[in-house]
Design a protein that fits this description.
Structural class: alpha/beta
Order of helices and strands: EEEHEHEHH
Strand order of the largest sheet: 3-2-1-4-5
Radius of gyration: 14 Å
Amino acid sequence: MSHTILALDVGEARIGVAIGMAEHSLAVPKCVLTRKSRQADLDALIGLAQESQASLWVLGLPRQADDSLSSSALKIMSFAKRLAIASKLPVVFVDEWETTVEASELLLRADVSRKKRRAKIDKIAASLILERYFKYGPLDIKPD
């Protein structure tokens, strides 16, 4: 049986989504959701999880240079707790350090226009988050 995983790059305005299968360690950018409201965001994500029969959420967690959690990390942890309860799926975190920068550089090297980069960057960052999960495993942090 396959274990489908959804990875999220949670931002203030958008949520990048990537999908992957644990057995293949393959991460594929899926979509970008424009944030509307807490409940609308949760409903959209739960719909994606049901559609893809996901068994796990992997969220990028921004950490500061000294390894402490930033205020945005605390917001993401709060969102993750709500997502875990609403979806009844476990949530784990990976360090998302520089994933957006790395995604931007990948798109620049691929000669993607600025307008198209903006539309794709969040889902590319989500796929990089999922690749980090496959490579390094989750951070030892729980969404409580």
